[in-house]
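Workshop exercise sheet. Pairs work together: one partner reads the sequence aloud, the other fills in the structure field after running the prediction. Swap roles for the next sheet.
Pair: D.N. / O.F.
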Amino acid sequence: MLLARRRDPRENGGVRNQSSAVRAIPIPLPLSDEGFRRIAFLHHQLAPSQAAYDLVWTHCQIVGTLARDFAQGYRAAMGRKTAANSELSTDSGDTRPVNPWGSAFPDADLAYLGGLIHDIGVYRVFAEDGISFEPGRYIFHGLEGYRILTDEGYGEALAQFARNHTGVGITREDVVRQGLPIPADDYTPRTIEQEIVMYADKFHTKSRPPKFVSEPAARRSASRFGEENAARFDALVARYGIPNLRPLADRYNATIL
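Structure field:
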């Protein structure tokens, strides 16, 4: 069942210049039931098919839940530290990875909201069948999502959840070295909440059927793009920990890789 008429793509730096029929307003936090419904409605309006909606919206809810859990766990861990050791240090003898966010406490509500919207651009990279992805287009889904969210009035801070979540962060050097067909720029998280959503995204797939991804499997996936990529993933594991995926996998009747 088609949910929204597909428009012909007009390429603009790799991003389809499309205007959704939905005009969203900024979503206040903590997210209310009405706010949740607004986001679900945006997903529904953008989806080219029921199958696409089910796949992407379910994935985003899972990532949002994981992101909120990571943020809450991180806040609790930081709260247990004393002022003297609250920040990861580079002092002699301390081999822990540097924390780029210092003593910042993530907003768990914002991380959850970021998870719900991070893959909104995926609807723009489906093939005409509304089920499979268009070959060569998936790399653009972050930029597509950024365009959708800014056009819909969500603002720069929320739109960056879509722009800056791919992989374990795409740097300008990555774009150039790998010859990626996106503008040469930095697509790494700008805030701790964006980083948490990016990390949470690594633990669930949009394959058919969707699957949860264990930490070893997620690391193997990251290492396919080089040891530097694997090291970035290891730093995320050290910072936020390894999620217990079993309750979510049972809830969604999904396997864990």
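Discussion prompt: Confidence is low (pLDDT under 50) at residues 1-25, 88-96. What would you look at next?
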